[in-house]
């Protein structure tokens, strides 16, 4: 995190604390402020520069993160990133695709 992003993170840290508390009410106890920040960067601000966004927009985006949205997007990203057949050898894959 560069200095500008860190300064912005520090400004909205209370909002992130509030969201973490909300998630804990729904028994999502492993989600951190950093997790929510990274999620918002990917979900809301992917093609935008953080230093150009108004503070009220950043706060609104953070408050808009619901536990169900967070979990859905996170699970989809996990499915996309996992290579289900990474541990199989070429012969094993060929055997799966061309059973005899």
TrEMBL record:
Top-level taxon = Bacteria
Q: What's the protein name?
A: Post-transcriptional regulator
Species assigned in the record: Chryseomicrobium excrementi
The organism's lineage? Bacteria, Bacillati, Bacillota, Bacilli, Bacillales
């Amino acid at each position: 995190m560069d200095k500008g992003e860190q300064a912005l993170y520090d400004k909205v840290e209370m909002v992130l604390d509030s969201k973490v508390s909300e998630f804990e009410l729904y028994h999502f106890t492993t989600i951190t402020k950093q997790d929510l920040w990274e999620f918002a960067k990917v979900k809301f601000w992917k093609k935008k520069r953080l230093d150009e966004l108004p503070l009220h927009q950043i706060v609104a985006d953070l408050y808009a993160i619901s536990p169900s949205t967070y979990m859905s997007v996170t699970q989809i990203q996990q499915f996309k990133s996992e290579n289900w057949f990474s541990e199989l050898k070429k012969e094993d894959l060929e055997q799966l695709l061309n059973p005899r």
